[in-house]
Design a protein that fits this description.
336 residues; alpha/beta; elongated; two-stranded antiparallel ribbon; Rossmann fold; 10 helices; 7 strands
């Protein structure tokens, strides 16, 4: 609570210089206190929060009367009363932890109760939630789920902007391996169905960059990525899960303005050619290890490897729900 130290400093100042009580910035104090309450608004029913704010306004109205009378003792008393009220509220960090736990409990209960299919991966898991735009709810450990608006029984779990290339490695920037292990131990039910959703970031950002840096053909870079990715899929399968793999989608169009949120290397047609190769090879690897491969990539491009942009969302990187009719045929593989 940042307001409490400020109020204590005001009390100290009044104790040293009582005339200061006649110049208390009550409107500014009220703004600080309201900001503190707003941080807690999400855990209070609207009626309860309204009652708290009403009590606060009453304290401030009485305080203003003391200010008018330049009564230092009463002014200090009101400031202490406000401090006491604020101390009854949990810290914002504690509130975040409570909300994260509530989101975790709700998503986990839904997963167990309805035997939902886990979708594990980068931000492209959002498509399986039924939301048009990215809509993440934190569940702790820098992991998110999504509010669900779909008739299909999915539980998307967003690990972060992770790469297929290092998903099977420890101590990476976004710690995909560690987070996946945590979820397997604490969230995902035994023998659950898990769809892994990685690779789009590798293809958009890293494949052609690394091909230049290493003086290799893009197919060699893709093969290096897949050798890591398939090992992670095999590890999940060995844990007893029913493992599926969602192939990366078509890449950003060339006319899409550059956005630091979604960097890219290589031309649109080059990235889509690399994605086609990635998906062919990944499909073959999955078949070899009895992992079902799902993909709508071929339906999202033209014969000349240009992206059909109508299937992308407003950010021009993720799938729009307009692509759902393309995916429904693939989804049948999950329920047979």
């Amino acid at each position: 609570m940042q307001t409490i130290p400020i109020l204590r400093q005001l009390i100290h100042t009044i104790q040293l210089h009582p005339p200061v009580a006649s110049s208390m910035p009550w409107d500014d104090i009220r703004s600080c206190i309201v900001a503190e309450y707003e941080c807690c608004a999400s855990i209070y029913p609207a009626s309860q929060l309204g009652s708290i704010q009403q009590d606060l306004d009453g304290i401030l109205a009485d305080a203003r009367q003391s200010y008018a009378k330049a009564d230092a003792t009463k002014t200090i008393g009101f400031l202490e009363k406000i401090i006491f009220a604020l101390k009854l509220l949990p810290e914002a960090g504690h509130i975040d932890a409570l909300l994260n736990q509530a989101n975790f409990d709700h998503a986990c209960l839904n997963h167990y109760k309805n035997n939902t299919i886990i979708v594990l991966g980068d931000s492209h898991v959002n498509f399986f939630s039924g939301n048009e735009n990215l809509s993440f709810l934190p569940i702790g450990h820098d992991i998110n789920t999504c509010p669900l608006h779909t008739a299909y029984h999915f539980t998307p779990l967003h690990i972060g902007p992770c790469l297929a290339y290092n998903c099977n490695r420890a101590n990476t920037t976004f710690q995909f391996q560690e987070k996946a292990a945590y979820l397997c131990q604490n969230f995902i039910r035994p023998n659950a169905r898990i769809i892994c959703c990685l690779g789009e970031i590798d293809l958009r950002v890293h494949v052609f960059k690394q091909a230049r840096l290493q003086n290799k053909n893009y197919t060699q870079i893709v093969d290096d990525i897949l050798s890591e990715y398939i090992q992670f899929l095999i590890t999940l399968k060995k844990k007893g899960y029913q493992v599926y793999c969602w192939g990366p989608i078509a890449s950003q169009t060339q006319n899409c303005p550059l956005d630091p949120m979604f960097p890219r290397n290589g031309l649109e047609t080059e990235r889509n050619a690399a994605t086609a190769y990635f998906n062919r090879q990944l499909s073959s690897l999955c078949r070899r290890h009895n992992i079902i491969f799902l993909s709508i990539f071929d339906k999202m491009i033209t014969d000349s490897y240009h992206t059909l942009e109508q299937y992308l969302s407003a950010d021009r990187c993720h799938l729009s729900q307009r692509a759902l009719p393309l995916a429904e045929e693939e989804f049948k593989k999950l329920f047979t």
